[in-house]
Amino acid sequence: MADSFHDLSVLRHSAAHLLAHAVLEVFPDTQLTIGPATDEGFFYDCLPANNFKEEDLPILEAKMHEIAKRDLPLTHTQISKDEARKLFAKNRFKLQLIDEIPGETVGLSKQGDFYDLCRGGHVGRTSDIKFFKLFTISGSYWKADKKNQALQRIAGTAFYSQADLDAFLKQKEDAALYDHRRLGKQLDLFSFHEEGTGFPFFHPKGKLIVNLLVDYMRTLQTKLGYQEISTPLILSDELWKMSGHYAHYKDNMYFVKIDEKGYALKPMNCPGAYLLYQERPHSYRELPLKLAEFGLVHRHELSGVLHGLFRVRAFTQDDAHIFATIEQLEKQIIEIIELTRTVFNRFGFNDIKVALSTKPNNAMGSEIVWNQATEALKTALDKARMNYVIQEGEGAFYGPKIEFKINDSMGREWQCGTIQVDFFAPENFDLSYVNSLGTKSRPVVIHRAIYGSLERFFGILLEHFKGHLPFFICPTQVKVLTITDEQQPYAQEIMAKLLENGIRTEIDSSSDPISGKIKTAQIEKIPWMIVVGKKEMAHRTITLRYADGKQEQNIVIDDLAAKAKQACSR
């Protein structure tokens, strides 16, 4: 059986039923809720009579293997809702689901004496489910709403071969070993505190990395004619209602009263750019107008889903809003695609996957404009020689979009950059420009982010490089290590020369032996270590030691500075 995503989702959906079956055999007083397949595996949310414990996982896993070996057929039928209500009379969660399912019948899956509500899509027999692993027990809420019943989630994964399962488990082991939260603490980059749950605190070295990410993007944008803006963190809640964000984000927004008037911390940067555009009339000669903003946004995420820098309550978007004519779309999209590729390639992400999302059912605007915009995106992708898949009907209600995904060194996929075409905002905010005929026309707004979230991209980089960041973005690029205090003046001279050439350099002035200094620098993941002893000082040279242990000897300071500058440009 092929390991396509579809087949894996069927296998994992079946494994979720197998897990639920095992739960009821081991803990018969448990109430089952839902158990879908996920990109990574599967889970089942349950309400046990007594809370599950981590030591229950191997017991449940063993029971799953036992049931699998019974070689039970998996069947699926449609039954009446009345019949379903009788079967699940003691399970209030299933009864609610039955009421919410449209139509007069519901799907029922069976394997042996176990049955569950289900839309269908299973393997043939329980014996087809051989290679699986349970991971964690965690907290959840019914229908992911913290106002609802608290539940416990058992999560795991399943594959069609032991080799695939082993590779996945190794990937998870590496992910835990190189977790960016662990590396952030080890490298003194950032921290989280109870006084600000979900809000990252960046230490000096971490803030330096953020600034370097901003500076790199700013340099590229400036060359392309972007103008940088800054808009307020807090704006009237009436603005968010007008922009449509209130309807979509109100449960995740922070609100405040100022002088008896309602305001909200911005969850997005877009409306601020629209207000700036409205400040004065615009001519077609000014378009495209590219307004960029490194804007801090706030979203109230549930505490249970917060995850280091990957899921926070405040993050910085490298946003840009491009006001253009419909005829300019193709050229602008090509430019953004090339910019995105340049940025990702700079950080070693060369395998970029692209998806084009087209018109959804709830789209606004005319079919003609949608077709024109979608064709512009397709043509731009083709001219940029980007392979892409079509995601039919998955565009935003205000326009089609392009999504960029990157794969990290552990084989995980991350969705980062986006390009979105927007017809709604220009209409809603009455944005216009004077065209070549002297009459008013609506611009099209292109929303563009490449890092997406600087915080999240920072975390991705840390895990992708396992803490060994590329030389050009390391907070400390070079550390000078002296064998004795006698070499300190020479070390200062070396550091001054490197700093003069823009190389971030420190001296280890501790009293540790050289082996201890090297070990400390390795723990700090310093890419270059300069070892200075009597011989080096006498000959006015240095010994360069790399993070992997390789060494180069008898390098003069000027050559070292040139070598470091060259490393920064790679």
Q: Can you walk me through this structure?
A:
By secondary structure, the protein is an alpha+beta fold. It folds into four domains: 5-177, Threonyl-tRNA Synthetase, Chain A, domain 2 (2-Layer Sandwich), CATH 3.30.980; 206-228 and 279-464, Bira Bifunctional Protein, Domain 2 (BirA Bifunctional Protein, domain 2, 2-Layer Sandwich); 232-268, no CATH class; 476-569, 3-Layer(aba) Sandwich (Rossmann fold), CATH 3.40.50. It is 36% helix and 26% strand. It is built from 18 helices and 27 strands. The strands form seven sheets. The chain has an eight-stranded mixed β-sheet. Strands 24-23-25-26-27 form a five-stranded mixed β-sheet, with helices on both faces. Strands 1-2-7-6 form a four-stranded antiparallel β-sheet. Helix 6 (180-186) crosses helix 14. The longest helix has 22 residues, at 5-26. The protein starts with a helix and ends with a helix. Mean pLDDT is 92; it is low at 1-5.
Structure in a nutshell:
This protein is of the alpha+beta class.
Shape: globular
Please give the share of residues in helix. Answer: 25-40%
Q: What structural class is derived from the secondary structure elements?
A: alpha+beta
Low-confidence stretches: 1-5
Give the total of domains: 4
CATH superfamily of the largest domain: Bira Bifunctional Protein, Domain 2
